[in-house]
From TrEMBL, chains A, B:
It holds the Pfam family Histidinol_dh. Its EC number is 1.1.1.23. This is Histidinol dehydrogenase. Signal peptide: none annotated. It comes from Falsiroseomonas selenitidurans. One of its GO terms (molecular function) is histidinol dehydrogenase activity.
Length: 433, 433
């Protein structure tokens, strides 16, 4: 854990080092992934059964056995404990409401020249959703990735999840059922991405693939990009907590640890105007690390990437936060909205002393798939926009063409594109423009 | 040019071949580009002067000489012929109006549980715009890339354009002035992308880079992706024209050639319900190729990639168009809106017999940077959304937390993330949840 104070010499260099910190270690798996993709393209279904036996240690009888039946999916919700079922339903309902409110309006305007122009939103036909298996099989991620697609109007949502040794987390299947996933396949790794991108006979290809995965999955998404759309490749998660001394230190400590427990590469940063409060939080972190089940991971993250930054005032905190452009931002001060108004770059903000990030991870409504590693400067969290696309359109009659056509002819000629110019000029009645 | 008829044996195979046609030849320049990026990162300004001398054959006195002064930019509009100036101003005004109408609304909602959630749009701070030099220096592309950024509220738009042998197209500079570009640099190739992504001392880094370029520029954008945002890598351009026999064949022929004259890899497809009309269009294409200045390019495109598809009815045409998901779509039939309503996938549509694509390339208002190579299935044209990002937010008080917190605790426990659960439970008053 690093301790920085804005007033001290060397602060700028230390803060810049924090910004430049590379928390991600990328394994180079390009060639292995290219081989798997080529095999899936060449052999289709047969490749999937073989690769599943090799990587997931169970052998499907045939390609049909890779698909979980619609009945199994529908039954999944009823098969889990009532409390978990209720919580998943609460989460699904709230996420759906928030994403439905995002749906954009079409545009249709006619201007003084008589030219009618517009923009029409439409859903992608088919989306593939990758869900990691094993430890990191999070039902909340299924809801967060699938519900925006369903709300956008995507008709076909094909989910792939590896089932190592044949085992599948029933909560993941229940989340898929609640989120309206239309197909679930027991396929993992690069072969799942290849199957979704190119199709295999049994599994029809999709148009866009979303969802987190390991290095093989991420590289496979990179390699099929262009053939299909992909979401951005998520890096390790991070939180910045802005908190004054009026907070309970143990609350803030647990917020920092909630981030740290994800991953050794996660990053938790406290920015406070009170060094004493900062010290109290550090002490509470140490206390909590004694009993947390995932203390080993959380401690590794906190020691390597954690930081406490003591600022002279909140304006300094805002400036530093904008440079960090954090994935998650908690604002726990007296007038949190004033600070939020001044923050330009953050993936998601949690406003007030009673609003820990974990609320947003599960049930608040906004998406928990968010831009990491300072990319909130230019990127956004997952939303219905990821599953919609726009078609712009122009409608012109002879009068409208006469009004704006000559300018098009002039510019086409200036660019040396004569067929462009002629396509307009011929319609204006100029045979030899 | 291929001639296909839906009723004939072998149609499906021939159409599928058209869909699978790879028109793009990618040059592998990974290593060369990685070297240039490393040099720019290591040497900053000094690398730029050296690389410019090497690739663009002129030697800047120093890094400051790479920048075109604000006065030069401002003066550029006055220095071009009045007709071109007027046409550029018309285009800029119309593009600005259309993109301003796209600006989305923020979201702010409070639900029955007392949880307030929202979504806030904000502009990216700084955008880099790459503009190719030489033949392909198109002022219209400057307008189409820079104006959406300015409308979105981007404060800093840094444009890089190579000036081979020191030469710069004055129209490109005029377009930059009209579009509100704030900096123009005489830098090209992979070194420009590296400079924009990492900064060089003189040139400060940006957050996102857009604009077309050659294989080196495209590969450099791939390599800096993550550090900054990038737009999609455009492939060769294409048009599908739906036209019945009531059209003038020479209009349609010129529309097809306007696409073909861009690039040998461009593709022009006519879909018609009249074989006789298709034959008339083919004859008019041959006629026009005798006198078009760019006939060599247009002919190469038409011969290799052009196609006429004769359909039995317009429902067939719609189905085929959706499979093609074309970048540009002209709809020249009696009730064009009926067909447009049934088209799910197209980058931009041009509706009616008086609405050639060239209108949209220059002055109609919608963007001419569009998804190519069937990616309109999942991707969209450039828009203000490319220069905005979203911050979602949640605000909860103690009562709101009490309403939805327990569900979060349940899900966090189910996922084995105890610090997540504790961060909520502690605030609910459960010391040992």
């Amino acid at each position: 854990m690093k301790w920085l104070e804005t007033g001290q010499p060397g602060f700028e260099a230390a803060f810049q080092a924090l910004l430049d910190e590379a928390r991600e270690t990328t394994t180079r798996v390009d060639a292995a992934v290219a081989g798997i993709i080529a095999q899936v393209r060449a052999e289709g279904d047969a490749a999937l059964t073989g690769l599943t036996a090799r990587f997931d240690r169970w052998t499907p009888a045939d390609a049909a056995a890779l698909r979980i039946t619609p009945t199994e999916i529908a039954d999944a919700v009823g098969a889990i404990p009532a409390a978990q079922r209720g919580a998943l339903e609460t989460a699904a309902r709230r996420i759906e409401v928030f994403h439905r409110a995002q749906l954009p309006q079409d545009l249709d305007m006619t201007d003084a020249d008589g030219v009618r122009t517009g923009l029409r939103w439409g859903a992608i036909d088919a989306v593939g959703l990758y869900v990691p298996g094993g430890k990191a099989a999070y039902p909340s991620s299924v809801l967060m990735n699938a519900l925006p697609a369903r709300v956008a109007g995507v008709q076909r949502i094909a989910m792939c999840v590896p089932t190592p040794d044949g085992v599948l987390n029933p909560l993941v299947l229940a989340a898929a059922a609640l989120a309206g996933v239309t197909e679930v396949w027991r396929i993992g790794g690069a072969q799942a991405i290849a199957a979704l991108a190119f199709g295999t006979g049994s599994l029809r290809p999709v148009d866009r693939i979303v969802g987190p995965g390991n290095a093989f999955v991420a590289e496979a998404k990179r390699q099929v990009f262009g053939r299909v759309g992909i979401d951005s490749i998520a890096g390790p998660s991070e939180v910045v907590v802005l908190a004054d001394a009026a907070n309970e230190a143990r609350h803030v400590a647990m917020d920092l640890l909630a981030q740290a427990e994800h991953d050794e590469a996660a990053q938790s940063i406290l920015i406070t105007d009170s060094a004493a409060f900062g010290q109290a939080v550090v002490a509470e972190v140490e206390m909590a690390l004694r009993h947390l089940p995932r203390a080993a991971i959380a401690r590794a993250s906190w020691v390597a990437h954690g930081a406490v930054v003591v600022v002279g005032d909140w304006a300094e905190a805002v400036a530093l936060t904008n440079r960090l452009a954090p994935e998650h931002l908690q604002i726990m001060v007296d007038a949190p909205r004033d600070l939020f108004a001044a923050i330009r770059h953050a993936g998601a903000a949690f406003i007030g002393r009673h609003c820990p990030e974990a609320l947003g991870d599960y049930v608040a409504g906004p998406n928990h798939v968010l831009p990491t590693g300072r990319t909130a400067r230019f990127a956004s969290g997952l939303s219905v926009f990821d599953f919609l696309k726009r078609t712009t359109w122009v409608e012109a009659d002879a009068a409208a063409l006469a009004a704006i056509g000559p300018a098009a002819v002039t510019l086409a000629r200036a660019e040396g594109l004569d067929a462009h110019a002629m396509s307009v000029a011929l319609r204006l009645g100029n045979k030899h423009p």
